[in-house]
Amino acid sequence: xxxxxxxxxxxxxxxxxxxxxxxAGIAAAFAGQGAQVKATGATEREVEAAAxxxxxxRLLDVRDGGAVEQLIAGFDRLDVVVNCAGIIRRNAxxxxxxxxxxxxxxxxxSMRVCAAARSLLRQSKGCIVNTASMLSYFGGGxxxxxxxxxxxxxxxxxxxxxxYAEDGIRVNAVAPGWIxxxxxxxxxxxxxxxxxxxxxxxxxxxxTPADVAAPVLFLASDAARFITGAILPVDGGYLVA
Length: 241
Ligand code: NAD
Description:
Blueprint: E1 12-16, H1 21-32, E2 36-41, H2 44-50, E3 56-59, H3 65-73, E4 80-83, H4 96-124, E5 127-131, H5 144-164, E6 170-176, H6 185-189, H7 191-200, H8 209-220, E7 231-234
Parallel strand pairs: 1-2, 1-4, 2-3, 4-5, 5-6, 6-7
Residues 17, 19-23, 41-42, 46, 60-63, 84-87, 105-106, 109, 131, 133, 176, 178-179, 181-184 line the site of nicotinamide-adenine-dinucleotide.
């Protein structure tokens, strides 16, 4: 997306869950715009792998509220926060403990980051972009925790858009469709399931992290200055088919 100038050069950007998949694509896209990007990952291994480039990469588990606050305290200025940390535990989420873990990371973790970043974002009149999902709209029989968490991310986004507007902070979300990342590797490898997904996707392909990153740049840019509380599907048309 370097060919489109989103006016984000020099902005201070935090991408939580920015070491893999969609988040890594978003972090790279902001860096490509000349933004100062800090990305986080949940494991030392991921952090080391991602830090081999020019990116400032930190370890962060969003279940740890103290660690979230400490990370944000390390910023002098913060213009954009992207919440992209997430897990899915297919077939395990009917166990209430697994359910709770998924909700704690995907939903509560997003809230922890938003709450901690609010005062810095108030100073910059900045913005937040959360990551919703097709399962913000649909139920998921195999993944009740993931669906509940993503339904929650959608409602959290709308609610914080209202609450943070008085601080001049915009809060939006992207709702990615089926994107080829490590999180969906099992589905990509399952020929039958992958075929079903492609048959229902009007644009007839799996999305890429770069496909999601470009709309995030837009939502973070001044071109989206009157957009808040929006959930933007980035799904090749899956939702309307
Ligand atoms: P991924 O597995 O490639 O990346 C997940 C990221 O989350 C990694 O950076 C990881 O370090 C981080 N993370 C995991 N647990 C964490 C924790 N406890 N604390 C902090 N960070 C943690 O997955 P992805 O496909 O790139 O997914 C990124 C986001 O996009 C997730 O919120 C996911 O639900 C959402 N999403 C993905 C798809 C898809 O098709 N891939 C579709 C819709 C939504």
